[in-house]
Amino acid sequence: MKRLVIEIKNHPRRSLSVMSGERMDTAIRKHAPYLRGLEPVQVFVQEYDPRLSTRFRYTPAPQLLELLRRELRELRPHSAA
Predict the structure, then answer these.
(1) 3 state SS of 37
(2) Are the C-beta atoms of 5 and 44 separated by less than 8 Å?
(3) Contact, 40 vs 68, CB < 8 A?
(4) 10-65: pLDDT as tens digits
(5) Which of 3, 41, 43, 67 falls 20 to 30 Å from 23 in CA-CA distance?
(6) 56: which residues sit within 8 A by CB, 6+ positions away?
(7) Rounded to the nearest 10 degrees, how much is the dihedral formed by the CA atoms of 37, 75, 5, 8?
(8) Own/partner pairs for 35-39, CB < 8 Å, 24+ apart?
(9) Where are the alpha helices (DSSP H) in 2-77?
């Protein structure tokens, strides 16, 4: 099972489960509207690993962070000129 953990500046972490067969970039795009107005600072992929004492491995995902930031920029309302 994989989850995406999103660290947000001055807010608690958010996590979302990636559905079976769903791509992680698709999950980020679907979740982006719920993060509107927030500033993500890090994205991790959380994977279950029974060999570790903590049972979970966290892998940084800078490409997903960039995708999330891009999606959030596109969701911003455009200012009237």
Answers:
(1) coil
(2) yes
(3) yes
(4) 999 999 999 889 999 999 999 999 999 899 999 999 999 999 999 999 999 999 99
(5) 41
(6) 46, 47, 48, 49
(7) -20
(8) 35/6, 35/8, 35/68, 35/72, 36/72, 36/75, 36/76, 38/8, 38/9, 38/11, 38/72, 39/8, 39/9, 39/10
(9) 24-31, 62-75
